[in-house]
Structures are given as structure tokens and as C-alpha cells.
Design a protein that fits this description.
This protein has about 280 residues and is mainly α. The protein has one domain. The protein is built from eleven helices and no strands. Helix 2 packs antiparallel against helix 3, helix 2 packs parallel to helix 6 and helix 10 packs across helix 11.
Amino acid sequence: MCPDPSARPARIVCVTPMIPFIVVLFGMAAVMSTAWLVQLGTRNGGWVDVFWTFGTGVACIIAALWPEAAASNARQVLVAVLAGIWSIRLGGYIAMRVAGDAHEDKRYAGFRTEWGGDFQRNMYLLCIVQAPAATMLSLSIFAASHGGAPELGIRDLLGALVLIVGIVGEGIADDQMRRFRKTGQQGAIMDQGLWSWSRHPNYFFEWMVWLAYPVIAFDVATPWTWLSLVGPVMMFLLLRFGTGVPTLEKTMLASRGDKFRDYQKRVSAFFPLPPRYKSPKRSST
């Protein structure tokens, strides 16, 4: 039984037991099993990313709106809307790219070659582990939506602003890459715009999106709000050291060779920074 909310400090929440996270875990397991079946039928691993993004968006909305007597309804709605905006923007972009591209995403094409006859077995494992990953992300959402003072405040506004900047930045990076791919330059390196400051600006801004929830929720004096850090920490590790940067760059080195090695020397892997030196000539021409 939760004590009277008015008797507790402003940023302490009454934590609902594990029910919402169990719901998210089993729901995402079903979503990702379906994703595996779809990629099996289409022979395109890119659909896994589509299912994960839309599924995680729904899971995060469920976590944000989960009933809790001490929570602020306005904050729950705000966080649910932010999670929905992220999911629709990113999921829609990936879905259109996968549906419109005749070739499989380089990461999955690389896995298909590397894993050979074990590809489908390993793909199912890769799919199913994304269910607990989405559940971990929902912890940040739950902490942000169920903590804090009854009224929305400056931190809620700042958190929303961080998320919007992340989404806009990722959208610009994606659009720059889309335009580059349409030029059809075989073997060229995209090193213009945001891609001249970071080799993976889309990943950086995707990570930035998840910083919104600690901005809204984190309070050093309130242990529960530390869970809001789970999202950005996990996304950074996955994108920078997991299935993001290392996997993609392995395939780029195989297909671009010394051009990509030079790009690696010049441009930061993740955080946008001024290039160390300029390319002797534009590698995209």
C-alpha cells in the first residue's frame, strides 16, 4: 500500500511492482518473434529494426501511462507523447527505407555472410534479446513519467526540448545520407554536412533522444530516479560498442577499404567534433 502522496517529498514516487515490466517483456518477446518470421519470409533483416522501433514505442507508452496513484497525469501524458513521437519518426523512416531499398541493410547482409548456415538461428537470438533491451529502456520512461512534482515544470520543458533536438538532428543526418545515396556514387564515402563531424551522427542524436528522460526525472537525492539513466547508458553502449558503430564499420571497411580508413582517421566515431584534418579531395565526388 502506498502512503499518502502529499506526505512524501516532491520527487519521491511510489513504485508499482514489476507488473508493467513483465507486460512489456512478454509483449516485446511476441513482437520480436514476429519480426523474425517476417525477415525469414522477406529475406530482409531490416524489418527487425522496424518491428523493434514501433514495438518499443508502444512498450514505452504503456510504461509511461501505467496507472499509479502518486504520478502526475500531465507528466505521464507528456512522456508518452515524447516516446510516441520518437517511435513514429524513426520507425517510419526505417520502414520506408527497408521497403524501398532493393538491398538488405549492410549490417544484416554482413551477418548473413558471416553466420552462413547458422544465420536464422542467430537472427532469432538477436531478435529475442531485443525484448529485454526494450524493457530496460522502459525503465527510463517509467521513472520520468511517474516521478516529480504534481505540476509540470521547467525540467519537463527542458527534457522535451532535448528530445526534439535529438529527433531533428537525427532526421537531418538521415536526410543527408538519403540524398547522398540517391547520387548512386559507387564506393564513395559520405563525409559532408553532419557526417563531416561524426561518422555516425544519426547514432549520436538517437542517443541524445534518451537523455531527455534523465533531464525530466533524475534527482541525486531520490534513488528511484536513477533508473532514468538506464536508457541513455544502454543506448550509448549498444550504439557505440555493440551492434551499432562496430558492426556497420566492419562492413564499410570491407567495401570501402582505405577510403573508409582515412575517414576514420579524420572524423570522430560518435560525438560530433571538428575533423582532425580535411580530406585531400572530397571523397563523395
